[in-house]
Predict the structure.
Amino acid sequence: MTQPLPMSDLLITPTLLEQVSSFYENFDIQSILKLSEIYSEDVEFLDPIASHKGLVQLRHYFERLLKGCTSCRFDIKEAQIGKEQGWIRWRMLFSHPRLNGGKIIEIDGMSILKISNNKIHYQRDFYDLGAMIYEQLPLIGGIVSRIRKRMA
């Protein structure tokens, strides 16, 4: 069970929370133009695919991700952002022409944030990469699904 942030650290910054929510709920090429409003220049962004240091690398990563997808957005399920740290629980909904027959794929995930000067300087995303990619591929997907069932 997730423990809430201590009250001393819970200086909620609705502006940052609203910016992050809006950014990811409307995730597209246009929203990437607003990256510098929520992320610091020296941001460190890690997810199961790779790590990116700096706003320029993060921008390129998001651009590549969006160019491959037919659609991509996030539903923010729950979030708590304080003065120096926070977390966001989300569901990513995306479609890619080579995955799942181009149909929408839904992946649950969570982001851990570190904040400085009301901007995110560290983000670590956690989600199931197998469910996101491997299980969606025609040949490999069946194999991964069978392995999961055997392990359960």
